[in-house]
Amino acid sequence: MNTFKKILVYGILVVTLGIVGYTLFIYNFTLSDGVKSGILTKFGNRGVVFKTWEGELNEGFGASRFFPFSVESDESEVIEDLKKYQGQYVKLEYKERMKTLPWWGETNFYIIKVIPEKSPNMDNN
Q1: Which of 10, 16, 44, 81 is 20 to 30 A from 52 (CA-CA)?
Q2: CA nearest 95: which of 113, 74, 77, 117?
């Protein structure tokens, strides 16, 4: 019985460390990063169990070219900027994660910076 308890304890420890390691990996590993530009068409706080910040950027190449994104709740400056520039042309710096968890957001794309820009389609004279 003593050997069985050791095996059980070590098994639980290995599983727990595996879950923690996997979560840290998907949180810290960035699959890609970059910049997308377009008109910020939608941004808000949504969800039933987990409230997350979600939005869409219209990239301007037709009605079907939308870039869905999420924002982490602790990114208060980014959240305020997205609220401020709603309906305007912006550049969004993002990072893409391999996976997401329900309390992080609905997409794998997380906005880290908002840059207001003049639309290339408007006359800037």
Answers
A1: 16
A2: 113
Domain residue extents for the chain: 30-116
User: 24-33 — which CB contacts under 8 Å span 24+ positions?
Assistant: 26/97, 26/98, 26/99, 26/100, 26/101, 27/97, 29/97, 29/98, 30/95, 30/96, 30/97, 31/96, 31/97, 31/98, 31/108, 32/95, 32/96, 33/93, 33/94, 33/95, 33/96
Hey, what are 30's tokens?
A: 């960035």
For the segment 77-95, what is each residue's pLDDT rounded down to a tens digit?
A: 999 999 999 999 999 999 9
The helix/strand/coil state of 46 is strand
pLDDT digits (tens, 9 = 90+) for 51-67: 999 999 998 766 678 99
Q: What's the whole-number average pLDDT of the chain?
A: 88
Token output for 59? 């990239």
Query: What would the CATH number be for the domain defined by 30-116?
Result: 2.40.50.140
Q: How far is the C-alpha of 69 from the C-alpha of 40, rounded, in Å?
A: 11
